[in-house]
């Protein structure tokens, strides 16, 4: 199947059947998220993979009781940095230098520019910027899941403060941004499965400037 066919196959499943997704598929979905581009390459988020059924049961009531939270195989929580700090910025720049094996003046100047700009900003503004980056990885995970023939339901319908508490995220300097249950559709119980996908026409989406 071509990528576009797979994107037409995917939909935000409203019911899942509890069947387990093979770990190698989950690993590839996570790898796609890891490979996502982010602003300045900072990857300012972590992904919590919840296999534990009791934790899923705790999250369900604070996620509008959506059944996919407990009927999925793996529940991914995209948790963004609560702010940018000097250490967090340095970590990614040092990692780049370590992996590439050299230091570059332009890159070091860029590091200083970020160090002089980001940590001083309001934490909420920084979190919102970090959460946007998490959404890029989230989107790549959705596409990768479709590629693997696995369902993934994007979920913003939850109480982030409550999820943060259940997972102890604030203590780790993280805040939940968005959830992604991964599993298999329960077609016979899903009102959405056979409905035609609705997207606005290309001409209402795209403006070409020649
Ligand atoms: C960021 C985001 C948050 C969403 N939150 C929910 C949600 O909480 N519950 C749900 O059932 N669907 C949720 N959706 C699914 C959208 O309603 C769905 O993607 C959209 O209607 C397009 O339909 P399709 O994904 O089935 O093609 C969310 C989608 C996105 C991208």
From TrEMBL:
Keywords: Flavoprotein, FMN, NADP, Oxidoreductase. Its cofactor is FMN. It holds the Pfam family Nitroreductase. The keyword NADP applies. InterPro entries: NfsB-like (IPR033878), Nitroreductase (IPR029479), Nitroreductase-like (IPR000415). It comes from the Bacteria. Residues 9-184 form the Nitroreductase domain. The keyword Protein biosynthesis does not apply. Belongs to the nitroreductase family. This is Nitroreductase family protein. CDD domains: NfsB-like (cd02149).
